[in-house]
Task: structure prediction
Amino acid sequence: MKKIIRNVAFGLLGLSVSAASVAGPAEDRSAFQKFYENRFPDTPLEDFQNGVYSILPSAREQWEAIEEFPPYELAIERGEEIYKKTFANGKSLASCFGEDGAVREQYPHWNKERGMVMTMELAINECLEANGEKPLKYKKGAMADVSAYMSYNSRGQRINVEIPSDDPRALAAYEMGKEQFYTKRGQLNFACADCHMHTAGMMYRADTTSPALGHATSWPVFRSKWQSMGTLHRRFAGCHNNIRANPYKAQGEEYRNLEYFVSYMSNGLEYNGPAARK
Amino acid sequence: MKQGLKVIALGLALATPLAFAGNGTTAEHIEAATAAYKQVAKETGYQWTVTVSTIKAAQKALDSGDDQGARKLAHQAMDLVEATRTQAKLESESWKMRVPK
Result:
């Protein structure tokens, strides 16, 4: 009997130790933001929403000049047209997202009924399909345009992603996104965290890597390299290709959960998309 | 010297995947590399783009009649699959060390 009690006591002790060693999302975010504050002490927290330009004064001036005549302006106009276009059933995207589509702050979020992370791009396609329209491709083109229009109208809203504590599946999705972020993949053996955290601000060939804090704020972006607009999942896939890892499917579970994680890490920052990037 | 060579030979024999142990045709070696790639992807979710392109290059070489080149590429692809498997195994735990505390 004594032996059983002793074993139970050891078991409980073990459980309490392991629980203490596993940080929750709030602790993760605090440590994450602290990391960047320490690494880039001259950058105010709020400024991380400007990506690499928050830490690279030499490129910032150029970027600010580009933003005066933004290359994404036409995308916003095209996006507005698509947004306001009447479907065959007489409705439009506005029927799902309101008159101006300023709903960026609502995404990504945990959908308890469906047990999954919902992103804005996924919601756009679900709205189209629910109204008998064809879905859009997720990485660029019309989807990036509509997303640009909606993001533009949402500027100034703040990221406020929640990991509901009453649904363990939400925490599991967050943990999956976290693992994605810190796990090395591909032949080059890189994790997101390698470039955008531990060596953020350093040169990789001719480019400086951006800090991951603020990564979720400015999408979609017009990227000079692409010479077109692209969504966050297009960028995720591009990064995976760069390190010679097969990318996941855009809007698949892996990338939605990664978006959930990186957005949560940037809670409190402002949505300022669309934006121009190198 | 002879002993050193024996050790190296033994090492290579042990390191060679079972599918490559026999004297199968080059087409079978390519098939084995493809199957191993798919199996690792299914088991771990880890896939390298370079493995796919190496397998394709092996098939292309075989189709053009370069049996020796194709076989070499098939073996390279198998090495990449094994490296992918090792990465998946290591990363299943070591990613946690990169999380700031």
User: Anything to note?
Assistant: Chain A touches chain B at residues 23, 28, 31-32, 34-35, 178-179, 182-187, 189, 191, 193-194, 197-198, 241, 244-246 (CB under 8 Å). Chain A has two domains: 25-69+163-277, 73-153. Residues 2-21 of chain A form the longest helix (20 residues).
